Amino acid sequence: MAGARRNAGVRPRWRAMTALRAIIVRDMRIAIRIGGGAMMGVLFFLVVVALTPFAFGPDLALLRRVGPAILWIGALLASLLALDRLFAADHDDGSLDLILTGHLPLELTIAAKALAHWLTTGLPLVLATPVLALFLNLEPVGTGAVMLTLLIGTPALTFTGLIGAALAVALRRGGLLLPILVLPLTAPVLIFGVAASNAAVVGPVPFGTPFMLLCALTLMSLVVGPFAAAATLRHGLE
Amino acid sequence: MALIDLANPTRFLRFVERSLPWLVAATAIVFAFGLVEAALAPDDYQQGATVKIMYLHVPAAWLAMFAWAMMSVAAIGTLVFRHPLADVAAKAAVPLGAAFTFICLITGSLWGRPMWGTYWVWDARLTSVLLLFIMYLGLLVLWRSVEDPTLAGRAAAILTLVGAVNLPIIKFSVDWWNTLHQGASVIRRDGPSIDPSILVPLLVMALAFTLLFVTLHLAVMRNEVLRRRVRSLRLLQAQAALRV
């Protein structure tokens, strides 16, 4: 009885924060313990980056020039291919229904899940970049620029890809359909990410111009992604 | 007739049956007029006769963007108002929009070869239109791969609204980036920068293309309504066969 009264006294905002933190911790725990989500993304990144010199030939000067682009393509594919399981596992075991019927605003819950997903798949990609940049003969400045742009840009990829992840659950379709639908939406992020990385190394544009646009894209996707994904889940699973 | 009256598919079909012959006639007349005007229009002093490609290229580009804008309005109709014909309208516009985008890309490429010396450059205007084309194809695939029309309609509506971000990028790409493509020359604050002898045929062709779009759109919508009726009748038939 006393416990219930104490609970009722807690302000709702506090309970929402606790619940969101619980979701983030739970998702990160699942990602790290089971399925190896974080490791798989980095491994895929490594494979893509290791394969491209086979296609281009081991010309170190050429690789230095296209290195930022290769790293960006690898990170783009790695972070999007990891996304289709974001809601699928929760849908299979029923926890997605609980989330949908819960008190929390669905948009916030989804944003929390996306944040957890980025921390376990996007951030490892950024941390793996310096090692992979060695293969591509990048200078320290180039490596730093790619790391910085990926740090800012991969959240945009995750939050744009959220829409694809929600569609995968709502349409009960996986496979090639979702990359076809989502990859065109990520084109601006790729364009400005690579442009900023190249600007830092060779110019002629100052680094700040494309970088600011990249930041703007990320901020926009942080808003649009959760809302679109929430709408997809609500309309698709009712 | 208010939009809400057309929510009844039978009334919509009657409306289409009555208006379609007039629309077909109007499209044919304006097209004939526009083509003659375009043929008689003077050549450009620099580009020669190749400027005539513009009479197909520019209206197709406008329609390519107009179709997506219309789909976005229809998407709001699907998601917010649950208008029963909204997702029919959205679905019918997808192949038409894709076709107009394709015409725009092809004619632009054929025009670019003599004028710019290349079929394709990776600049902002061309790239954003190519992305528009890819997104149209993506929607086409989405509509084809999901069997339940309501489910596909809602998913397509959300994707359409997200993809609408591309429209202002296409429109302003010539102002924001340095590009081979010429800047806005019809809708400008200081009035069109095109001579009336070329502008008038262009506007007539734009009207003709718009009429063509509306005509085809209504016809495709009618086909889609009928197709859905056939689908639900078949489902009923199958259920009846199971019960016996």
Tell me the strand percentage band of chain A.
under 5%
- Estimate the global geometry of chain A from the Cα principal axes: elongated
Give the DSSP E fraction of chain B (strand runs of 2 or more residues): under 5%
Quote the distance from N terminus to C terminus of chain A.
36 Å
> Mean of the pLDDT scores of chain A?
84
Please estimate the helix content of chain B: over 70%
Number of domains of chain B: 1
**Helix proportion of chain A:** over 70%
Please report the number of helical segments of chain A. 10
Biggest interface, CB < 8 A:
A-B, 18 and 23 residues
Number of helices of chain B: 7
Oligomeric description of these chains: heterodimer
Largest sheet of chain B: none
Order of helices and strands of chain A: HHHHHHHHHH
Helix and strand content put the structural class of chain B at mainly alpha
Distance between the termini of chain B: 44 Å
Low-confidence stretches of chain A: 1-6
Features:
heterodimer, A: 238 residues, mainly alpha, 10 helices, elongated, B: 244 residues
SSE layout:
The complex is a heterodimer of chains A (238) and B (244).
Chain A: H1 2-9, H2 12-33, H3 37-56, H4 60-81, H5 88-92, H6 95-101, H7 106-135, H8 140-170, H9 177-201, H10 208-237
Helix pairs in contact in A: 2-7, 3-4, 3-7, 4-7, 4-8, 4-9, 7-8, 7-10, 8-9, 8-10, 9-10
Chain B: H1 9-40, H2 54-81, H3 86-116, H4 124-145, H5 149-163, H6 166-176, H7 196-243
Helix pairs in contact in B: 1-7, 2-3, 2-5, 2-7, 3-4, 3-5, 3-7, 4-5, 4-6
Brief synopsis:
The complex is a heterodimer of chains A (238) and B (244). Chain A is built from 10 helices and no strands.
Explain this structure.
The complex is a heterodimer of chains A (238) and B (244). Chain A has 238 residues and is mainly α. Chain A contains ten helices and no strands. Chain B is mainly α. Helices cover 77% and strands 0% of the residues of chain B. Chain B has seven helices and no strands. Chains A and B meet through helix 8, helix 9 and helix 10 of A and helix 4 and helix 5 of B.
